[in-house]
Amino acid sequence: MYRVIAAIGLCFMLLFPAGCGDPIITNNKPDKAIPITPQFSDVTVHDPSVFSAGNGEFRIIGSFLASARTTDFMKWQLEQRGGAANNYSAALKYYPQDKPGASTAADSAAQTMERQKADVLRPEQNDGLNFFASDIHHMPNGKFYHYYSLTSTWKSSAIGVAIAENVDGPYVSQGLFVRSAEAGNNRTPDGKETWNFDSHPNCIDPQAFFDNDGTFWLVYGSWSGGIFIYEIDPDTGMPKAESALNAENGGYGRKLIANRHSGIEAPYIIYSPEADYYYLFTSFGGLAANGGYNIRIFRSRNAEGPYEDAEHDSGLGTQKMHPGEGNEDDFRNYGVKLIGGYQFAHIPGESGASKTTGYLSPGHNSAYQDPLTGKYYLIHHTRFVGGKNNITEAHEVRVREMFVNEDGWLIAAPFRYDAGNERNFSASQLNGTWKLINYGRDINTTAHNSETYEFSSEGIISGADTGTWSLLGSDGKTAHIILGGILYTGVFLRSWDDDHKRWVQAFTALSANGIALWGAMKAQ
User: Fold this and answer.
1) Is residue 325 among the annotated active site residues?
2) Residues of the chain scoring pLDDT < 50
3) If DSSP states are collapsed to H, E and C, what string results for 282-331?
4) Which of 225, 325, 479, 496 could form a disulfide with 418 if both were Cys (CB 3.0 to 4.6 A apart)?
């Protein structure tokens, strides 16, 4: 599956270019003037990882070294579509350049890029070399650290770091620092164990971040033995040599979650100052349109864990997450599922188009919290029900706002980020016909469809289930939804329904056991 999807992803990365639209706007404070009709321009970047480029600009870098830029998280401009297997050019922006004096020796710490690629291409059977998910971090000293991953099969991968003095490069490789399976001669980094996919990682999907205490970390891992974390030396960009944490698990660092070749990848960690938690984002399932990709989170008081979800505390541990139907520790029962495949239906009487857009396999996200506005952004790619432009695996970047609910969990908006700021309602604005989506826990390979409910002015919900709704507190946005006897807590918000071209009331909420519920009011 890894091989097939890698080829599919690259093919459609090249075929599906940036969306058209107005030029990028330079005002990076869109909340100052909200347009009557929000303007979007879309791009195709698989596995988008966000970073600050400075001067109010944000960029994303993804697999195949594809990249795009924005100033408002709504209008995106493609920088480059990315490379192709075995045909990456040093002319590509963000391509790691050779360090002066780099060696062609297999045991050198600072290798040429050709030597690095040869390491990853060691297996006789491979899919050709690719750059998979990348991450760039803007360091306090002004430099940019590019953590890149090279891969040729699901068990021959490696992660390295390249450093640039400015955002546009050149990025100079400091070498590879962790390898999986064949890329590392089937040994763990300390040389003491044989690499095993049940317990050791596939070394892709890196993300670097500073914690609240100033420690620099790198989280990484895909499928295989789980998600791991290293303590990084901020001066070199490499794992700290004397770190006891880094020496764990044969030198792969500390394991945060998962085990036994679970379908879990794409880790990303951010800190919430209002909740005082670190949130670990992951993608479960397969990344193809029919693979069921979905985004789930865990949280911890410490960057290095232990991490828990809404039902499983850190003592019980996410270490018991195993694949397989009928297994009481089946991995799909873990994690707070923020978003999976979904489709809000068109219902009679709604304005605009009679056919709505369905979304499949949203995943491999990054996240950002604006220190000035306090807003949280979720940046991910998504595929579409029925494909797009006659391309089954077509994908685009989407951004959603996130909020912290009463229980200290991040929850995601049902619609894309639209710069809207209306967060204060009266109860009379919220009664009427609603469309609700319950995400459950499954790895859904088809879209979860909305069901229609009525919210009465007396706070009663009627439909497939019954319950109550209420607008609580003095903030005019806190939502309590009781449906089928289960309480969901979250927020009401005003969102742009792009299918019906209308502003609608919406909500996002979460139950105490981690089930997400979305609502969108009928578009009038």
Assistant:
1) no
2) 1-35
3) EEECECCCCCECEEEEEEECCCCCCCECCCCCCCCCHHHCECCCCCCCEH
4) 496
The residues spanned by each domain of the chain are 2-28+40-88+112-339
**Number of neighbouring beta carbons within 10 Å of residue 12:** 20
Is 47 catalytic? The answer is: yes
Q: How far apart are CA 227 and CA 224, in angstroms?
A: 9
Give the list of residues 6+ apart from residue 152 with CB closer than 8 angstroms, or none. 120, 121, 123, 126, 127, 128, 129, 130, 183
CATH number listed for the domain at residues 2-28+40-88+112-339: 2.115.10.20
pLDDT, residue 17, reads 35
Say which of 135, 265, 304, 497 is annotated catalytic.
265
Q: What tokens does 36 get?
A: 């009557």
Element spanning 136, H or E:
strand 130-138
Q: Which are the contacts of 166, defined by CB distance < 8 A and separation ≥ 6?
A: 142, 144
Q: Where are the alpha helices (DSSP H) in 16-78?
A: none
Spot the catalytic one: 47, 127, 231, 393: 47
pTM, two decimal places: 0.92
- Give the pLDDT confidence score for residue 323 in this predicted structure: 79
Amino acid at 187: R
